[in-house]
Design a protein that fits this description.
The protein is 40% helix and 21% strand. Strand 4 and strand 5 form a beta hairpin.
C-alpha cells in the first residue's frame, strides 16, 4: 500500500500527480550521481518560466547540471497533438526571436513520457516539425539517467 501525504491545510481531494512526478525526478537526479549534485540547478514551476523576446516559455522545470541545461516537459499522456505542437512551436519561436543571450546555448527541451507508445507519438510530432536537434524524448523512468549521463559526457 502506498501513501501520499499532503499539507493539512490543502483543500485538494487527490494529489497532483504531475507535481509529484516533477519532485520525483528531482529526487532521482540527486540520488543518481553525487559528483554532479553540487552543480545541480533544478527550478520547478513557476521559477522555470522565462520570457525570450515576446515568447513566454513555461517548462515544468529547468535543469542545469555539468554545464548542460534542459527545459523539462513532463508529459503524462493527457495532451493531444495540437497542444503538444503548440508547446514545441513556442520553443522554436523563442530560438528564432534572436533574443536568447549571446554566448549561451539554448537548453535542450527534454520531454519525459510514461511509455513507449507515447514516446513514438511525441517523436512523430517532433519529426513533423523538423526540429529533432532541439527536442529529445525519454521514458520518465530513464530521465535522470539520461540527464546525468549527458552531463557526465560533457565533463570529459
Amino acid at each position: 500500500m502506498e501513501y501520499v501525504y499532503q499539507l493539512p491545510r490543502s483543500s485538494a481531494r487527490t494529489p497532483d500527480m504531475h507535481c509529484l512526478d516533477v519532485s520525483e525526478l528531482w529526487v532521482r537526479l540527486v540520488e543518481s550521481n553525487t559528483k554532479l549534485v553540487d552543480g545541480l540547478t533544478f527550478l520547478p514551476e513557476p521559477w522555470s518560466h522565462t520570457k525570450v523576446g515576446h515568447v513566454q516559455l513555461k517548462p515544468d522545470a529547468y535543469i542545469e547540471v555539468g554545464g548542460v541545461s534542459y527545459f523539462l516537459e513532463l508529459d503524462r499522456g493527457s495532451e493531444w497533438e495540437t497542444q503538444l505542437t503548440a508547446k514545441c512551436r513556442r520553443y522554436i519561436q523563442a530560438i528564432d526571436s534572436g533574443h536568447w543571450p549571446e554566448g549561451r546555448a539554448f537548453p535542450l527541451v527534454l520531454w519525459t513520457v510514461p511509455d513507449d507508445a507515447r514516446k513514438r507519438y511525441l517523436d512523430n510530432i517532433i519529426k513533423k516539425l523538423g526540429e529533432q536537434d532541439l527536442f529529445s524524448t525519454v521514458l520518465f523512468s530513464e530521465a535522470a539517467e539520461r540527464v546525468v549521463g549527458h552531463a557526465a559526457l560533457s565533463q570529459v
